[in-house]
Amino acid sequence: MFLFIVINSKSHREGKYIEKLGFYNFKLNIKFINIKKTLFWLNTGAKPTKTFSKLFNEHIKFNKK
């Protein structure tokens, strides 16, 4: 299982995170992303990874249906 988190770019990857945005359980193919919190951080200048961007866009498309 992976956590989607906001972390300072100068912190260690396993260090303390600022906020948890969601999770992805790849074994069960279950994904939860808090859209409101994610959009807040993206609008304040957070830079998502390519993997998170892909999963977030899929999540947005799925939730619009």
UniProtKB/TrEMBL annotation:
The gene is rpsP. GO terms for cellular component: cytoplasm; ribonucleoprotein complex; ribosome. SUPFAM superfamilies: Ribosomal protein S16. Signal peptide: none annotated. One of its GO terms (molecular function) is structural constituent of ribosome. GO terms for biological process: translation. Keywords: Ribonucleoprotein, Ribosomal protein. The keyword Ribonucleoprotein applies. It holds the Pfam family Ribosomal_S16. Transmembrane segments: none annotated. It comes from Candidatus Nasuia deltocephalincola. This is 30S ribosomal protein S16. It comes from the Bacteria. The keyword Metal-binding does not apply.
